[in-house]
Amino acid sequence: MPNQTQINPSVDQYHFLSGGGEMGELTRAKDWSKTPVGDPGIWPQSLRTIIGVVLNSKFPMFLWWGPELICFYNDAYRPSLGQNGKHPSILGMPAAQAWPEIWAIIKPLIDQVLAGGESIWFEDQLIPIYRNGKMEDVYWTFSYSPVNDESSKVAGVLVTCTETTEKVQIHNRIEQSEIRFRTLADNIPNLAWMAKADGYIYWYNKKWYDYTGTTPEQMEGWGWQSVHDPLKLPTVLDRWNTSIQNGEIFEMVFPIKGADGKFRQFLTRVLPVKDGDGRIYQWFGSNTDITAQKDIQEALKESEQRFRSTVKQAPVGITILRGKEFIVEMANDAYLQLIDRKESELVGRPLFDSLPEVEEAVHSLLDNVIDTGVPYHGNELPIPLNRNGKLDICYFDFLYHPLKDEDGKISGVIVTVTDVSEKVEVRKKIEQNEERLSIIVEASELGTWELNVKTREAKYSKRYLEILGGYREEIKLTHDQLLRHLHPDDMAIREKAFSAALASGYLHFEARLVWNDNSIHWMEGRGKVFYDAKNQPEKLIGTIRDITTEKTHQQELEESEQKFRLLADSIPQHIWTSDTEGNLNYYNQSVFDYSGLSPEEIQKGGWMQIVHPDDREENIRLWIESVATGKDFLFEHRFLRHDGQYRWQLSRAIPQRDASGNIQMWVGTSTDIQDIKEQDQQKDYFISMASHKLKTPITSIKGYVQILQATYQNNDDPFLAKSLGIIDKQVGTLTRLITDLLDVSKIKTGSLLFNKSHFNLYDLIKDITAEIQHIYPVHNFVEPGECNISVYADKEKIGQVLINFLTNAVKYSPGSNKVKVDCVSDGISTTVSVEDYGIGINKSDSDKVFERFYRVAGKNEKTFPGFGIGLFIAAEIISRHNGTIGVKSEPGIGSVFYFTLPLEH
Amino acid sequence: MPEHSAHLLIIDDNEDILFMLQTMLQMKGYKVSVKNNMEQLYEYIERVHPDLILMDMLLSGADGREVCKYLKSDGLLASIPVIMISAHPNAEKECLEAGANYFLGKPFEMIDLSATVAAAIEGASKR
User: Fold this and answer.
1) Any long-range contacts for A627-634 (C-beta under 8 Å, 24+ apart)?
2) d(CA A217, CA A220)
3) How far apart (Å, rounded) are the C-alpha atoms in residues A46 and A147?
4) Strand residues in A620-723 grouped as ranges (E)
């Protein structure tokens, strides 16, 4: 097995493939020369660029490139493929091969984008894919955007998507519980908040904001420090960090600054919340106002003493600078670590001697604090710093606070500093991602907009204007001007959607737009409401999408569907369809007219209610079998008509398959065959009666001929003897014809009975051949060599088959006298064959000769007698013995009729 | 021409068949009585008391199967062997169920008739 993580040196040199985590490695390691896109060295710049974006994006992305639609995807996309599924085998694979199960769904979408059509965007679409060893129902929000090559032709399709299955499934549940919880938490009398395991506070209750007069943006994370007493803060931080590290309950009294600027004392308790494994996953804190009894100023003085001793251990970088030279009086460990300097090279020396690289950025700030006494807050200030061996831009939050001596004169500056480089880096990355997102939004053809609910000021993208009114340039329009594009009839829809959105937080509606050229277009609007601190709607941010094409398609589809229904309803047959599970889901009007049941009644009681109770079991069995195997369904059963009569129907259902052969639905028809069946029954009854009535006179003729033959057997008159012989032979022929007719009607009514016994087949062949030889003395019947073949069968009926074969051989070979009978066994079955050297049968006819009333047709054979039912009966007899019957023939050469019977063991 | 002492009764409403059967069996040397109607049938049978009865399944005025059942339930007549004849497709099974000892399907060969009659008489004498 090749090591997939080994980097292919020829690929490694291409910087556009750098980064990108696991998929980056896999993409680099792949031997692309064996794929249609070839070695990365020959990739066009357009592909290189887009691959760079895909691999390094944190947003799930997928790319199909080139005529074969070769697959690329990134780490963020990878979880969507699950375990035991497509990952990583589809990397570099043509799309049709990679996605067979949904190819029928996505192929038209891809084609549309490739053909230069609009980008496609779907939200929460159900597209099942194969992963985790099975087909899974997966919901996606995705867009397909064209990617152009150097010649500005569409060469690929960029898919940006997010799996939203979980969202779709649990969205409502979570939302409900979330609302409940927030309502509860906002209404408790204490200040309360929740922090992540690392102490990052992500939620405060309403009371907190009310008391402190702050906003969520100010407070998030570690923003709470701004409402603390700066002198007390290091201790709080120290204690809080200790609690976080050790997982201990935090309990402390400290002042928190109110909205009025005054501090009040709060007893603060923070409890860790643990998961099932005992790990802390969040903290729940509450601050209870215990009423400040101490003078805040006194408390400050007291704490001043403690301050110095605790500064050293504080996790925030602290240093004290004295005089205009900014001599470093002290610096704590955190500070030293932060600037990567030793205490010895710093303390007692001017700051900028030790840290020359920061002078330009901060010297004037420090000067200003010393000169004016106004503290300076630096927020995410970029500072060049030489640390860890190289010069980097680092980001710091810091406070320069003036230090006064006893005379109140400013003698120095206390510096507290936090390294926020990492946070800033992360945020920059997020900003980059947002930028990418906006590229994607652009590519997905969505228009974006933002509406300030209070001022009605609207912001919107260029694409928004294009969708809204067909504007080609960006122009500034007021909210009311924008609204004028909405179709007057749809204004109510929009109003309703907006009212609903202010309550629910989510906006969604579809409406018509009137463009500047008066053409009508369709749009779909979606949005989210953002609320202010007082829970009042503040702004709406959303997207609009041009759905004109969809709507047109939908209308066309509806019209076409209507046409189909009209057609189906005007057909006299019953027509129905079923889903792949076999559940019937559509019936045409004929079904309702026939049964007298309403669509609701059929839907409720199922179609089985009109099937005759005696036919149901077999009906269900065959239907289940067809649905399971995909074989056509064919069944005769009785349906209850509205007048209470059961009438025979011939039902047939055929599966409809998609391009890959998967069954999509079943279409069935049921045809009323009652009249045909009755006619058939009458015909069979007639044949049966007629045959029976014919037999009595034949018995008479036969009997008297035999009496005459017996009486005159010694008479010398040769004419009398010959005449009686001919009458006897012809009566024999007539008897066989009648027997055949009767057998046919017995087969039709299922009453052909068999009387099986053990006998030697060879003896039967010999007897029958002798009998036929007697009737056709001129012909030469060649018998098989003697053998002993024991079978268990109806001797008389097998004899009947053989007689039929032999008389046919004589009938259809006018130019030849030879008929060869043979019999061979292979240990399992025995085959009896009768070969003639006559006119033969065409290939097209040879399958039909065993059908009822079929006769070989042609100018040469019209004159031959027989009803053509002998072979039909023979086929039935042999099939009821679990044997096979057939013919091999060549026109002008002759035919071999044969049947096989299973041997006795 | 061989001589048989056996006395046969043929019941058939078809005169042509009746005469044919009579001729054939007389040629074989049997003593033959014939009846072409159902009037006082059982009294007639009791009086004649034949060694064998040959009758058609469908008779005008009576059903051969009912006649057969009656005969087989009668203490005196039950021992007389009965051969029933019919052209009806399902007749054989029904006739044998009604108690007939033998069945002949129409049309039949003369040789089959004489063989069946001989077998029936022999069977009865062995009993």
Assistant:
1) A627/A578, A627/A580, A627/A581, A627/A582, A627/A666, A630/A655, A630/A663, A633/A666, A633/A668
2) 6
3) 8
4) 633-640, 646-657, 663-672
pLDDT tens for residues B59-97? 877 888 999 999 999 888 899 999 999 887 678 888 999
Q: In the beta sheet, which residues pair with residue A819?
A: A781, A836
Q: Which of A692, A703, A746 comes nearest B110 by C-beta?
A: A703
ipTM summary value: 0.86
Distance CA A265, CA A451 (A): 42
Q: Do A707 and B27 touch (CB under 8 A)?
A: yes
Question: Which residues of chain B are at the A interface, by a Cβ-Cβ cutoff of 8 Å?
Answer: 14, 16-17, 20-21, 23-24, 27, 87-90, 93, 106-110
Q: What share of chain B is helix, strand, coil (3-state, %, to 5)?
A: 45, 20, 35
Chain B interface, mutation test: which of A689, A693, A696, most B Cβ atoms within 10 Å?
A696
A746/B89 touch (CB, cutoff 8 Å), yes or no: yes
Alpha-carbon span A546 to A552, nearest angstrom: 12
Peptide bond into A88 cis (omega under 30): yes
CA separation, residue A775 to residues A540, A833, B112 (Å) = 104, 20, 20
Contact A630, A542 (CB under 8 A): no
Q: Under an 8 A CB cutoff, do A706 and B110 touch?
A: yes
Q: Which residues of A touch B87 (CB under 8 A)?
A: 692-693, 695-696, 699
pLDDT at residue number A446? 82
| pLDDT confidence tier of residue A5, bands split at 50, 70 and 90 | very low
Q: How far apart are CA A874 and CA A892, in angstroms?
A: 24
